[in-house]
Amino acid sequence: MTEGHGWPLATRIAGANVHDARMLQDTLGAVVVKPPDPARHRQHLCLDKGFDNPTGESAALVYGYRPHIRRIGEERLDRHGRKTRPARRWVAERCLSWWNGCRSILVRWAKHPDNYLAFIHFDSALLWYRRLKLRNHVLR
Hints:
Blueprint: H1 20-29, E1 43-47, H2 54-62, E2 65-69, H3 90-100, H4 103-107, H5 113-139
């Protein structure tokens, strides 16, 4: 799970044969940064068509997010009736490409799932550190 600019907020790992919709509840529970109060700041959660089921929407509502789920069979049209590109998919892909810069994640040297998850958490912490360091450097 990433925030609006692609920076990681939560990570869960599972086998390649586990659908993402089954991992949504665990992933939302693994967010390391406490979100703002939903009464004051509405939190949005953008999901693709794979989450178009009752469990996907209810999991988002349990954690105080407003789900934006593209419905199966629905095409996005602009005001002139033309198809538009799906928005914001690159956000999650951006995070994955940053993780691929870490060789231990890309090659997966760690065979034990907990060790692999620790590498992902460590790399996520490094990404956030670099972002905050860059922000402080620009502000000075």
